[in-house]
Amino acid sequence: MAKEILQYNVMVEAALRAVVRQALAEVAEAGLPGNHHFYITFRTGHPGVQVPDYLKVRYPAEMTIVLQFQFYDLQLDDNAFSVTLTFNNAPERLIIPLRAITVFADPSVNFVLPFQPAETTLEEEPAPVTTAKTKPQPAAKPTDDGEKTGEVVSLDKFRKK
Q1: DSSP symbols for the chain
Q2: Residue 156 pLDDT exceeds 80
Q3: Which of 6, 31, 39, 112 gets the most CB atoms within 10 Å of its CB?
């Protein structure tokens, strides 16, 4: 006879993913305040993730995106968010289920949420993202080296070894 227990770890993961969703919702509504910016690492092979094929080839397991200077049309629903970022001077639309996220960080306030990999069934795949339109974020200020562009950053160099 199996003993049923409350799955607190599952409850905590859901609550923490709600924090990520709330942060994204606030940014979708009003833009990034102050120096806030997000590093979001997600599993590229997770069901429902939509990124260009060339990025899936380059990042077959995980990818990190940065929402800071140049991101556009951030939208979200209960299960996923979508955003347009620039890669190699071309805008690309990404759709990322919240359950695909493995790390959410806001370095401006030293805030990091690591997540356990979430397993997803077909019934849990997110519906298309259709809500919470945003205004484009201002472009990065040009530097002596030229204009800043979006780039993918690995968080491994920031992790303690």
Answers
A1: -PPP---HHHHHHHHHHHHHHHHHHHHHHH---TT--EEEEEETTSTT-B--HHHHHH-SSEEEEEESSSEEEEEE-SSEEEEEEEETTEEEEEEEEGGGEEEEEEGGGTEEEE-PPPP--GGGPPPPP-----PPPPPPPPBTTB--------GGGGS--
A2: no
A3: 39
**Single pTM value for the model:** 0.69
Question: Rounded distance, CA 28 to CA 124, Å?
Answer: 24
Q: Give the pair of three-digit tokens for residue 130.
A: 């259709």
pLDDT over threshold 50, residue 75: yes
